[in-house]
Amino acid sequence: MLVGVLALALVPLWRIANELRAGEEIHFARPWAFLLLIGPLLVAWLGLYRPLARMASLWFSRVGEITALPRSPIARLARLPTILRVVALVLAVIALAKPQTFSGSNRVVRGVDIMFVLDVSQSMEEQDLARSRLDAGQRTIRNFLRKRKGRGDRIGLVVFAEEAMLHCPLTLDYRSLESIVADLEIGEVPALGTAIGDALGLSLASLRRSDSTSKVVILLSDGDWNKARYMDPGEARDLSVEMGVRVFTVLLGDDGEPGAKERAQYGVNPRMLKEIAADTGGMFFRAGDDRQLAKSFEEIRRNLPTSDAKVIGRVPHRHFFDLLLWPAFALLLLELLLRTTRFRSFP
User: Fold this and answer.
1) Does domain 113-305 fall into CATH 3.40.50.410?
2) Within the chain, which residue ranges are assigned CATH 3.40.50.410?
3) What pLDDT is recorded for position 156?
4) CA angle (250, 253, 259) in 5-degree steps
5) In the predicted structure, residue 260 carries a pLDDT above the cut 50
């Protein structure tokens, strides 16, 4: 019986060891669960090493003759139920830590590398669009991301005001990127300025490191630039033309079209955005109409050439939760059976 018990406990551990020998790396999804090992240790101490004075006992006048008698095999296994409980708890804790192995996942996707460039300067607080210019830009990007799921496009984000900052490199994790966009606020970078040229140049620098043959920048701004630390919008536009990167521009703000709201404190510069889009082979849009903007972005997606890109990742290969939990459950049942039958104790 003892051999069978040990085999039942060691089989899952032996399977895990085989995975390690085969070169698989064991990853524990919940490593904090190992803190619960203090429970099996406490059970082992109370059941196996607690002082004899705390255990039930019978008194004899001639103890020496009793202790000299040979112990039967059953007597030698008196602590087996406690051992079963300890082993079962250890297996349960390891199962709770969720051990698993991963395998490499290489796949080829067809898509476009897209860098969003979003203005977060002080002028984006204007409310000449629904809620504000910044909110319109955030909704535009988030709607775009939701429609791109599963398309294979890698998308990144640059934000700018007085300075430009790469907020998210090119990624396929749209959910995380959407969360980043939703949390953007005025003040992510020094807000008193609009360095469109620097921001466009930073996005082009990120795209230069990409091996994709189809690269696009989508610039969302009110278009009224007044800062240039490294390059002005004209220099950035020329670099886009040199790299063959199309720049699609989106005007965030009222440019005096019919039906517009009252004049905003901060003006806009649609002319510059139109020139950048025209010179780079892109398109110019207004953000006042969300539905029209969504259709325009869909037109952008249809007209862009795609390229193949190899995506290297890893996916869960084998889980050991059940392999550990079922033996633990079986050991606890066996312990309960032994304690209520052959190893039943009488205080």
Assistant:
1) yes
2) 113-305
3) 92
4) 115
5) no
Structure tokens at 322: 């059940």
pTM of the predicted structure, to 2 decimals: 0.57
In this prediction, residue 261 carries a pLDDT of: 45
* Distance in angstroms (rounded) separating the CA atoms of residues 276 and 274: 6
Structure confidence at residue 294 as a pLDDT band (50, 70, 90): low
